[in-house]
Automatic annotation (TrEMBL):
A Pfam short name: Trans_reg_C
UniProt organism field: Chelatococcus sambhunathii
Matches recorded under PANTHER family: REGULATOR OF RPOS (PTHR48111), RESPONSE REGULATOR PROTEIN CARR (PTHR48111:SF37)
DNA-binding residue intervals: 124-218
UniProt protein name: DNA-binding response regulator, OmpR family, contains REC and winged-helix (WHTH) domain
Entry-linked InterPro entries: CheY-like_superfamily (IPR011006), OmpR/PhoB-type_DNA-bd (IPR001867), Sig_transdc_resp-reg_C-effctor (IPR016032), Sig_transdc_resp-reg_receiver (IPR001789), WalR-like (IPR039420), WH-like_DNA-bd_sf (IPR036388)
Origin superkingdom: Bacteria
Length: 221
């Protein structure tokens, strides 16, 4: 899953990005409203964390422009403790949730997980496909209750497919959502990771749809 953090405070921006990367996400960063607006309009983010008090273009204006342009990715806004009006304006502009500064990082991570689950139509923190279970809280994968050790790239790939169970996902979509903008992207690596995942999971849940991509489905009885 690929996220964007738009926050002008460089320390907060770095802390958020580091925590999100550790949690298994690919993360891009912007430090002002104009840069954030451009990235949000041109890149396919799964969710965005957006500060309301940005230089060059404020967060509310950025969010309003995104929504008017038809960009419907989940947006979590960051607001100052004494600016309750930011919350109201943010929701009116199209925000999905908010966190008040100063915040606990665990709360931000939990709210991001919830936004991603709801956007994909899942209500539980555990996403299940046959014997495969993805615990989004712990970034942990099990098969029939047994822990499966995955690399960060393998986990990102499986997590994206698990969030979109039953839907055909193309290689280009996977590349766009698994790597940040600075990563040297190569769609051929997706096939390598798919092969590794199949071997590690040991169950037939990842189907190849010829000419289209991959689909995650429970194994046939």
């Amino acid at each position: 899953m690929r996220l964007l953090v738009v926050e002008d405070d460089r320390d907060i921006n770095r802390q958020l990005a580091d925590a999100l990367v550790q949690a298994g996400y690919a993360v891009d960063r912007a430090y002002n409203g104009e840069e954030g607006l451009f990235l949000g309009e041109t890149e396919p983010y799964d969710a965005i964390i957006l500060d309301m008090g940005l230089p060059k273009l404020d967060g509310q204006s950025v969010l309003t422009k995104w929504r008017r342009a038809g960009r419907d990715m989940p947006v979590l806004i960051l607001t100052a403790r004494d600016r309750w009006s930011d919350k109201v304006q943010g929701f009116d502009a199209g925000a999905d949730d908010y966190v008040t500064k100063p915040f606990h990082m665990e709360e931000v991570l939990a709210r991001v997980r919830a936004l991603l689950r709801r956007a994909a139509g899942h209500s539980s923190s555990e996403i299940v496909c046959g014997p495969v279970c993805l615990d989004t809280r712990a970034s942990r994968v099990t098969v029939d209750g047994e822990f499966v050790k995955l690399t960060s790239h393998e986990y990102r790939l499986l997590a994206y497919l698990m969030h979109h169970t039953g839907r055909v996902v193309s290689r280009s979509e996977l590349v766009e959502h698994l790597y940040d903008q600075d990563f040297d992207r190569d769609s051929n690596t997706i096939e390598v990771f798919i092969g590794r995942l199949r071997r590690k999971l040991g169950v037939d849940v990842i189907q190849t749809v010829r000419g289209l991509g991959y689909r995650l489905e429970p194994p046939a009885e």
